[in-house]
Specification:
Length: 135
C-alpha cells in the first residue's frame, strides 16, 4: 500500500522511496513490478540496516522487534536521518512508552491512538505518533 501511494505521489511530482526491513530473506514477495521501482527490502538486523541506510526519512514506521529496548534503539538510529517534518509511527505504544520518551527527549510532540475493537477477542493495540513541535 505504501508503494502504491508512492507511485501515485510520483505521478503528481512528489517522488519518494520505501525501505522495509526484515530478517526473513523470503519476505517481500509482493514487492515486484512497479512497486519494486519505489521500494526495497533491507534484509538483516533492522538497526544495522537502518544505520547503513544513506537516505533522509520523512516517515518512519516502527514494527520490528517489540522489545522496548530494541524499539528505542531504532528511534535513536534513525534520529539523524529524519527530515525536519518527519513523522514516526510506533505500533507498540500500548505496551511500551519508548516512543513517548524519545519524543520528549527530542522535543517532539506525541499522540497516542488506542484501538477499541467492538465484540472482538483482541482488546486492541495502540499506535504512537511522534511529530515535530511547533516551537
Amino acid at each position: 500500500m505504501l508503494c502504491a501511494a508512492l507511485l501515485r505521489n510520483a505521478k503528481e511530482g512528489h517522488p519518494g522511496r520505501y525501505f522495509g526491513t526484515d530478517l526473513n530473506p523470503s519476505a517481500g514477495r509482493l514487492l515486484k513490478g512497479d512497486y519494486a521501482a519505489v521500494g526495497k527490502i533491507l534484509y538483516g538486523d533492522s538497526i544495522e540496516s537502518l544505520d547503513a541506510l544513506d537516505a533522509k526519512i520523512d516517515l518512519f514506521i516502527n514494527d520490528s522487534d517489540h522489545s522496548a529496548d530494541y524499539e528505542y534503539r531504532e528511534y535513536r538510529t534513525v534520529w539523524d536521518k529524519l527530515t525536519p517534518a518527519a513523522i514516526i509511527l510506533g505500533d507498540n505504544a500500548h505496551a511500551s512508552n519508548k516512543l513517548e520518551l524519545f519524543s520528549r527527549q527530542m522535543k517532539r510532540r506525541f499522540l497516542f491512538f488506542k484501538e477499541l475493537p467492538v465484540k472482538h477477542w483482541y482488546p486492541g493495540a495502540g499506535i504512537g505518533i511522534s511529530f515535530p513541535s511547533r516551537d
